[in-house]
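Protocol step 4 of 5: obtain the predicted structure for the target chain.
Materials: sequence only (see below). No template structures provided, no constraints applied. The aim of this step is simply to have a reference model before the mutagenesis design in step 5. Sequence pasted as it appears in the construct record:
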Amino acid sequence: MPRPTRISEISELNDWAWLRRRHFPHTNLYGQLGTAMLQGQWLGKYAGTNTGEVILELDSVDSSYGGRAYIYDDRADLPSTAAYVAIPAGVTTHQIKNLPLLALAPGGDFSTWNNVRSLFPGVTFPTTADTDWTIAGNTIKVDWLTNIGTSGSATVTRVDGSRPSKLAPMSITTWDEFRHHVRDLSPYRYVFRGQENNSWRLRTSFHRTQRADLIRYMQLDVNELHRHLSGLTTHLFNLTSDIEYAAFLSLAQHHGYPTPLLDWTYSPFISAYFAFKKAGPPVEKVRIFLFDRQQWVTDWMQLQRIAPARLHFSIIDAVALNNARKIPQQALATVTNAEDIEDYIGSKETDTRKYLQAIDLPTAQREQVLKELNLMGINAGSLFPGLDGACSQLRDRFFGL
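Step 4 output (structure tokens):
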């Protein structure tokens, strides 16, 4: 199994389209797959001998759905469990007998029980389980009995991160109001993200493909990316280094390959550029997210890893290794295994503690906004150093925004 990986930042390259088509063959222009019955992330609770949370991550693999099931016990003094499961396509019931079980070490790594049993004195851990699966629409019920006699039952529901955002925007509705509001915010407390459609939920490019098995992604995609792209980078990334692994993944993100990262910027005006740059009819409003990075990091543990992990949303401000875009974009990223980021952040909020806000602005103001941002030095030429950025900037200048 792959070791836990830290996440980082990256940039330049060119030949990403081939890899994207190979690993995400059914994605359309917006990265969406046709609906697949079991493909995606499923979440729920379990009860029985113990209680806790279940995360099920299934990909479409040949004629079945395969991926990882994670069982996170409510008791911190007990180990959590992982298993690889495969369910044939088209079935409504399925049995998996003698399903091998792996323990999850306290740091989150896969492990054999013999390697971690000393950390859990007095605990007996099962090595296999007989499981019964019942599939009904967007729910899966699974019952199990282990080889040591412990049992449980869980119902998991498929996460739908593609539905329209339900995040109510702030009362700011014009560019002038936006400028005045962000000018008074504490520098570097908030990070910002611009999206050209105010109905889009926060969602990573990996989860927009409806793939979900992040271990498979780390084993297949990242390793093949490294083999295919090492001849194109000026630096040979060492994937055994946490820092360089993160940098390599961020490089793929910046050049269009789906990753579990989400890009943000410390600059509200740079986020406005990304929101307005491609905006237009029939969409009437763009959206700029404001995320209270400082309070989130104070309140919630940050996991610098992809998988396996409990649901998390973690900040990364990594080195700009081979990344000419990171500095001018004032960029940082988040890493998450949550398909629905808005729901996850919302589950941590209270009436008096809000982390995520949104400002919706009319696309009708696009030309005014982009002209003003250009006067600030925020344009394609400054944000995307190189030929592409320079040509894009001059195209806007001579052929109109």
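Step 4 remarks: The chain has two domains: 16-32+162-399, 40-158. Residues 1-20, 26-36 have pLDDT under 50 and may be disordered.
Proceed to step 5.
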